[in-house]
Design goal:
This protein is α/β, with parallel strands linked by helices and 326 residues long. Keywords: Signal.
Length: 326
């Protein structure tokens, strides 16, 4: 029997959890086993974002990869990695999914962030990536350079999306310092664009295909413009958890890597599982562009993000990549 997948309904719950006391929710990984050997499963909380990037972890639960490692996952949705990082740091979650920039920021501030495995990467194909910048004909934006002086929505401020949008604008010859970034949840962005509240939106799947189906146009593949095969997101814990319970981290990483490999090899399964935790329809799920689901972190791309974060003022200290990355 597959482990029960308990998904909380709102990101506000995650923010509330982040303010709670410390201590691992799993209570450690002692005396764990799998359903096959009769051992009790260890409950593990993981912060996720309801986007295509995290499809592998849902598949891993569905296929029993975590149960095989003696783990029972509770997936807790949040608006972005900026909300998940403090929840993991506080001990309210055991692991989390976040964009690389949020983890660079946390590391540069001395937070004990430890990446355990990759999560999603760019396809590397301009115009055919799982993330991009959309606009409407009336916004007066035809290229990334035209985003200069415009209002652009991102899901959370000061993370990988505004950093890579600036990189696209800079590469196209525009002035990224004049962009006004606005924080909106992904599901709210298309409506805001259509109402003229913003001039452009940076979205990932399934909101990218959904927006294009609604009549918006793609003006930049910001991840592709930033670095080759850019690692966008990864799963992480704290160094304290990694040191105190290495067996738990090993089991989670093993199951997560199985899940990533399975997702990469079974794109139809990814599209099917999207229907279970997002509000998209089957037609959109069948049309969207999937990320690359790889188990290795592209360090050169992370170094590029670190350099951009420094130059854009997101961070003021060099991150310690040897401490952050596996």
């Amino acid at each position: 029997m597959k482990p029960f997948l308990r998904v909380l309904a709102a990101s506000t719950a995650v923010l509330a959890l982040a303010a709670c006391g410390s201590g691992s929710p799993s209570g450690g990984s002692e005396d764990t086993g799998s359903a096959d050997d009769g051992g009790e499963l260890t409950p593990v909380t993981v912060g996720v974002i309801p986007i295509v990037d995290v499809a592998p972890i849902y598949l891993g639960v569905q296929e029993g990869f975590f149960e095989e490692e003696g783990l029972e996952l509770e997936l807790q949705p949040a608006q972005g990695g900026a909300a998940i990082v403090p929840a993991v740091m506080s001990g309210s979650m055991d692991f989390g999914f976040s964009n690389i920039s949020s983890m660079l920021l946390a590391n540069s501030k001395g937070l004990d962030v430890q990446v355990v495995t990759a999560g999603a990467a760019s396809t590397g194909e301009d115009g055919a990536d799982f993330g991009g910048v959309l606009t409407t004909p009336g916004a007066g934006v035809t290229t990334a350079a035209d985003l200069s002086g415009k209002k652009v929505a991102v899901n959370t401020l000061n993370n990988i999306n505004d950093t890579t949008v600036r990189a696209s604008v800079r590469e196209a010859g525009g002035d990224p310092t004049t962009i006004e970034f606005v924080e909106l949840a992904f599901p709210d962005m298309q409506a805001a664009l259509e109402r003229g509240q913003v001039d452009a939106i940076q979205v990932v799947e399934p909101f990218l295909t959904g927006g294009m189906n609604a009549g918006s146009t793609l003006v930049a593949s910001n991840y592709v413009d930033t670095a080759d095969a850019l690692t966008i997101g990864a799963y992480f814990t704290t160094g304290a958890v990694a040191d105190s319970d290495p067996e738990l981290v090993k089991k989670f990483t093993n199951a997560m890597n199985k899940s990533l490999d399975y997702a990469q090899e079974n794109p139809d399964a990814v599209r099917d599982v999207l229907l279970t935790y997002t509000k998209i329809d089957a037609a959109t799920a069948g049309a969207l562009i999937l990320p690359s689901f790889v188990t290795e972190i592209n360090r050169s791309g992370v170094e590029t993000l670190a350099e951009l974060s420094l130059s854009d003022g997101l961070i003021t200290e060099d991150p310690q990549l040897d401490e952050l990355l596996p």
